[in-house]
């Protein structure tokens, strides 16, 4: 992690530096599990630029929910959700790999894709965007696009592999319109399991009283 990378998001050039990368890694230490150094660096840069482009100080500034209008977690952050899903996805793959010798998966792509699956929430969960959409739903939609759609944009802009962009794009309902990769299939069920267990375990707030923190820019 050295030097500055410039990524263009929301008509702005975002200069990603080591301080920004360190902040992302502090929130999601599982990024360090990615063995390929180049892939690991692109995941860090993608998240750092995405967070900065929305004026957030951290991933945890986003509402900790599955969708912008969903009930938030009682405890924990959006980063904790993403981390948990990535860890569950990896456990699923490791269990299959341990018991079935013909099971083959790409560990780095699974981790990278799982950690980037909700990166598009920086658009869908942006309070300024939500207020704008709510004021005039028929102008650009409400929301204009869900996080899987915007996630594709961020992943490809950051130079992440097609396989990772596919996982951001198709981990949710959008994925019912295509054939998911193996890694994305694992991710899809880890993500679904997280929210189903969170609901069953009374981990979701009863009412939505989430207040977004002040933006940095």
UniProtKB/TrEMBL annotation:
Coiled-coil annotated spans: none
InterPro entries for the chain: HD/PDEase_dom, HD_domain, HDIG_dom
Phylogenetic placement of the source organism: Bacteria, Pseudomonadati, Pseudomonadota, Alphaproteobacteria, Hyphomicrobiales
Domain of life: Bacteria
Residues of the HD/PDEase domain: 74-205
Protein name (Swiss-Prot/TrEMBL): HD domain-containing protein
């Amino acid at each position: 992690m050295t030097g500055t990378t410039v990524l263009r998001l929301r008509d702005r050039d975002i200069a990603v530096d080591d301080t920004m990368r360190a902040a992302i890694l502090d929130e999601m230490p599982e990024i360090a599990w990615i063995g390929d150094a180049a892939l690991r660096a692109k995941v860090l840069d993608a998240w750092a630029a995405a967070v900065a482009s929305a004026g957030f100080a951290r991933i945890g500034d986003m509402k900790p929910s599955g969708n912008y209008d969903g009930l938030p977690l009682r405890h924990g952050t959006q980063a904790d959700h993403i981390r948990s899903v990535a860890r569950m996805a990896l456990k699923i793959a490791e269990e299959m790999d341990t018991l079935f010798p013909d099971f083959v998966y790409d560990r780095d792509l699974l981790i990278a894709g799982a950690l980037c699956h909700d990166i598009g929430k920086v658009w869908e969960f942006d309070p300024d965007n939500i207020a704008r959409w709510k004021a005039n739903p028929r102008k650009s939609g409400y929301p204009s696009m869900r996080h899987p759609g915007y996630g594709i944009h961020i992943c490809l802009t950051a130079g992440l592999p097609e396989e990772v962009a596919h996982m951001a794009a198709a981990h949710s309902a959008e994925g019912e319109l295509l054939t998911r990769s193996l890694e994305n299939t694992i991710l899809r069920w880890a993500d679904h399991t997280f929210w189903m267990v969170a609901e069953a375990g009374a981990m979701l707030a009863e009412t939505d009283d989430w207040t977004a923190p002040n933006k940095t820019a």
